[in-house]
Amino acid sequence: MSELGWTRQQMADRLAQEFEEGWIVNLGVGIPTLCSNTDIGGKQITYHAENGVIGYGPVLPAGEEDLHLVNAGGQNVSLLPGAAIVHHADSFGIIRGGHIDVTVMGAYEVAASGDFANWKVGGAKGGGIGGAMDLAACAKRVYIILEHTTRKGEPRLVPHCALPVTARGVVTLVATNLGLFAPSGDAFEVHELAPGISFEHAAKLTGAPLKHG
Amino acid sequence: MAPPSKIYPDFAAALADIPDGSIIAFGGFAGPGTPYNLTRALLAQGTKRLTCIANTTGGAHQPRMPDIGMLVENGQVAKVICSFTAATRPTDVLPFTKYYESGEVEAELVPQGTLAERLRAAGAGVPAFYTPTAVGTELAAGRETRVIHGREYLLEYALPCDVAFVRAWRADTAGNLQFRLAQRNFCPLMAMAAKLTIVEVEEPILPAGAFDPDQVHVPGIFVQRLIQVPPAPEGLWTMRRQERAR
């Protein structure tokens, strides 16, 4: 946990403010899941899960859950009025067909070019792709939430991904503990800095050039 | 003469003629639709050199249920085709990962939507298709791509299977299936893609005609064998997953 800037929930809250009325949203595991806790006013959002659950609501407490119902993270969720269930090929038809307005995912690295890496760690033979490559290639928008640096303090916002990419040139918005940034080709543009974070501080912790937005 | 019944008395009988070297697809996603009882029977039978197709190999959560990771540990598996050889969260550990990373078992890592569509294509008589998924990644390296209407797509082949194991909520004697909520996931696609589909059914099997035809999720033409899951503890049922402390 960072001492300065946004908490994980605040990162999710800030990104969720970008959701627009009527959007179909897919949230990845980890910090992105926290977007569903955010109060975004009266906006009507439909959450889609890779396993074909469309229109799910909050996670249910133990004892109240239905064991036949999980979201893509395996959490026992509820269904909201208007929910629907489809099989996996139709669920990914929704994704590949461009019907998801935004996918929010975690990542190890994001490049200034909009490339990102989130399925394989350095030195591994395999990894965990899940639905990430389908979502990254086909959702209308790809937003990323991640800590600005690794635990060792190395930047995760970089000129080029060192790890194998999930998709190229697709990321348009990145929330980190330091603020909100947009990949712009050879640099990241600052859209907003978290309270107490200076431009100079953010620039020092960013691997690619940082520009005023 | 009446056609032979699709209903089998127990899991062992339903699996007895599955030979070594079979390609078996396992339905299920994070619990719902997972054929725990059929998998347990396959572990007991000891069938070898299997190719297993599933979204995941299981084993990341407690309580651990019969899964592909256990078939691997039992020396029954030659290859796995899946969308995860490792967990997304570094704090989750898949027992399968070490077998794959050390080279004891082969694996083909496939994006989840591509896996679903390859199964659907196999069942639907489509030999291959183009998808935008994985273009520009290491998965596409050296493979056939094609630019269609200005966008690059990757060629993916259909994935036919010898056997599908799925779990359904309800079935009738004609083999028609209904799933409840998130049980459906890969199950209909695997039933279509396999030559032999074996289903563990949660509710008592109903006489043909009991379902409204408009409410059938998989028609019985894709289903050859049905076994009703006995009550616990004899039968295995989905339990709430306990999250690992992180």
Care to give the gist of this entry?
Chain A is α/β, with parallel strands linked by helices and 213 residues long. Chain A contains four helices and 13 strands.
pLDDT average of chain B, as an integer?
95
CATH architecture of one domain in chain B: 3-Layer(aba) Sandwich
> What structural class should be given to the helix and strand makeup of chain A?
alpha/beta
**Outline of chain A:** globular
Q: Determine the number of helices of chain B (DSSP H or I, runs of at least 4 residues).
A: 6
Assigned CATH class of chain A: Alpha Beta
Report the sheet-strand fraction of chain B: 15-25%
Pair with the most extensive interface? Answer: A-B, 46 and 54 residues
Order of helices and strands of chain B: HEHEHEHEHEEEEEEHEE
| Main pleated-sheet profile of chain A | 8 strands, mixed
- The appropriate CATH architecture of chain A is 3-Layer(aba) Sandwich
Low-confidence stretches of chain A: none
Provide the fold topology.
The complex is a heterodimer of chains A (213) and B (246).
Chain A: H1 8-16, E1 24-27, E2 46-47, E3 53-59, E4 77-85, H2 88-96, E5 102-105, E6 109-111, E7 116-117, H3 132-138, E8 142-145, E9 157-158, E10 171-176, E11 179-183, E12 188-193, H4 199-204, E13 210-212
Parallel strand pairs in A: 1-2, 1-5, 5-8, 6-9, 8-10, 12-13
Antiparallel strand pairs in A: 3-4, 6-7, 10-11, 11-12
Chain B: H1 11-15, E1 23-26, H2 36-45, E2 50-53, H3 68-73, E3 77-82, H4 95-101, E4 106-109, H5 112-124, E5 128-131, E6 145-148, E7 151-157, E8 161-168, E9 170-171, E10 177-178, H6 187-193, E11 194-201, E12 225-228
Parallel strand pairs in B: 1-2, 1-8, 2-3, 3-4, 8-11, 11-12
Antiparallel strand pairs in B: 5-7, 6-7, 9-10
